[in-house]
Task: structure prediction
Amino acid sequence: MADWQDRTRESITLIAPSGVEYEAKWSGNPISMTNKTATHQFPGLAGGKSQDLGMGPRQFELTLFFNDEQNSDLDSTAFMEAYYQDTGDWSVIHPTKGQITLIKISASELVDPVNSGGLFAVTTSWVEQIRDTFELTSVQLQAIAENQSGNLNSSAQSQFVNNAKQDEPGQKQGIITCIGKALTKIKTQLALVKGSLTLDPKIISIGLSITNTLNGGVDNLIDTEVLASQMQQLIQAYGLGQTSSTTAIQMFSDFSSSILDDAPTTPVTENLSAIAVTELVATAALTASGQMALIGGITSRDQTITAVQLLLDQFAEMTQRLDEIQTLFNGQPIDLAYFSQSDSYGDSLLMVSQATRFLLRTLYGLPTQRTIIVKEPTATIQFAKDQYGQINTTDNQIGNYQTLVDSNELCCDELWILPQGKEVLIYQ
Result:
């Protein structure tokens, strides 16, 4: 998953109500907010009743630096003139918060070019404006979805603790057996990215911890809260370093299907705890898919739609299969009943919804794609020229040839000649 350096930038863009765009350097400023409350006082009673009215708008302090070698004074003056004259909403692409809408409050310009080495600094204050049609940025949507994946892990963990009972003979063994099957499938069906040797010790360490937990602790019982966390960590570790959302979601989706195929189908006491394992592992895989939706590696709209469909299908299949297991226990006494996704359904639905929303938000900036079948042997560089434009030795134009090579994984002779009948993917 991308780290903070990939998600942030050093510059800030401010678009005035007139539509003129200003670019400045930015090093960091506080963002503050105040909650709105109303206090009601009553005759004859000490104290009062406070009502939470929700958070007020965020307040931004932005220090802007104009340091162009030739035009820093002109850039600073132009910005200050717009700040002084323009009335209305400013659209700001914030280095860490993405696109936000702000209303100006105050500004102070440092005019000391000699002592500042030609650097012009402007200190500004703003208050956030809720747009008429409020739309979260992709950065905000990503943060929300990442947070929800953590919420889903927590609710799935609580659900497992409640359902993985060890009161009756065979229930503990049911947990151990089902965990063993899941571990086997993890090893054979989940794959680390190439070159991720640093993850191997992490995987091994978690595996050893799971073995120790299964051996039992106090009263020889399994600590189900610890076990749930360990299984989630193990499964989701295979998402670390993945570079393609579509490929990674497909991997976790296939794994989830395989886990559900092995779910116990006989409504007996010992199987209740085993089913709890099945649900925990499948939900952890769904959480991993939601996390994979946020990593990028998608280069076209078709791939985005595919990733969305895979995620939705995985959630739908898991819910349907668990509901089918629940029907097996219909008519059983309450202590033998199984209720699918009793604590996690809402968080699962919300996580999938937010991850899907993020994917669709990124859709509009991506190209469409089409497949061309090569009619006759053609020089690869000529084919790239015909489809993408002029090819020469400049970096930006030779990149069209490289795009063709990378997107189609061309190698060997195909780097020079595309054979007749070759299917070639083109982005537009």
